[in-house]
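Database export, one record per block. Field names are fixed; values are copied verbatim from the stored entry.
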Amino acid sequence: MKKLFVKTYGCQMNAYDSAKMADLLAPLGYARTDTPEGADMVILNTCHIRERAAEKVYSELGRLKALKAEKARDGGRMLLAVAGCVAQAEGEEIVARAPVVDMVVGPQSYHRLPEMIARTARAGGHALETDFPALEKFDSLMPPQASGVSAFLTVQEGCDKFCTFCVVPYTRGTEQSRPPQDILREARQLADKGAREIVLLGQNVNAYNAQGWSLAKLCDAIADIESIERIRYTTSHPRDMSEDLIAAHGANPKLMPYLHLPVQSGSDAVLEAMNRQHRCDDYRRTIERIREVRPDIALTSDFIVGFPGESDADFEATLQLVRDIGYATAFSFKYSKRPGTPASTMRKQIPEDVKAARLDVLQKLLATQQYAFDDSKIGQVLPVLFEKVARDPGQIMGRTPFSQPVHVQADAALIGRVAEVKIARRTANSLHGTLLQEQSA
């Protein structure tokens, strides 16, 4: 059996893709390992969203070069592949800058890995695949070889929004939705492998539209799979929060009261410069409609501070939006240039010290809201779906319907099942409670 090491950067969709690449290579005799040392193949599944993404990849390749040379000295061979969004954006440059790399494969082409391995073995040299063959890759997916209690399932890829700060349309292509029958088949396979929660993934997952099916209809169909107890989806665009999807949050009991809906800024001027295609009041009205059907919903979001041209007044508008909405948690980042995006050439770039100061203020406000949301659950009894053994002896970890991690002293036999837990306290990033009454899955 050959050893396969996959290092995943970035988003949940990359985690899904990494699992699928491992499934695809399993029939070739590759089994996943937790370390690159001694591996027969290493895949870096990259993300282009975070700051200095490409530099981090080249740094990692430098470390892997030594491992590859060591493998060769022992008479073996390590195949080294760069996959994902950095591969898509910088494929030819990777080949030129890092000759140690054998294969460069974009996120829409990883189904060609077996062919690329064979080509490399026959002819040597480099194999480069960075085309956009629509959703051809999904036609080549292997059935899931394994599943956790909570399983990712990609239903949509790509983006048509062209936000001025974002590389996704250039690395993942335009919006494409998988056929519903394929998604439902994979959901059943995941359920048969032990999944009790399905997390539907897409760059703009709520833009899902295939054969007349919306995301709401898809969630309803997945809810009909008896052993699936919970459904979530991420990431959504405010413009695509349709009325039927909003209604589903009140009508579908398996659709969890949790919504990640990135707004990015609380200033209309900044949103326009970002080409977000919505205004702050549009976002507020959407949140109001969602809370009408599901008052207890946990809301999360993304924020970028220090976007080119952001004034003190613009930043204060973001703080006011956060105060108005009240988030269970949120992700916030300093703006950083992405080569090839319109925002990278905009005038009025904000100084780093100003961005850092604003981010600090925003994160303190968001942390206060997160602690308040978590504190509101203390004393409540919540259904927790247990996912894995925790670090502390005798503890297991699960999640509330609001996606909060919960630690409980309980037998590991509860993993994969839902049980009621009385929440006793919170720590910085999780809740702790006492098991009350077990419920069968």
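Remark 1: The two ends are 35 Å apart (CA to CA).
Remark 2: Residues 381-439 form a domain with the OB fold (Dihydrolipoamide Acetyltransferase, E2P) fold (CATH 2.40.50.140).
End of record.
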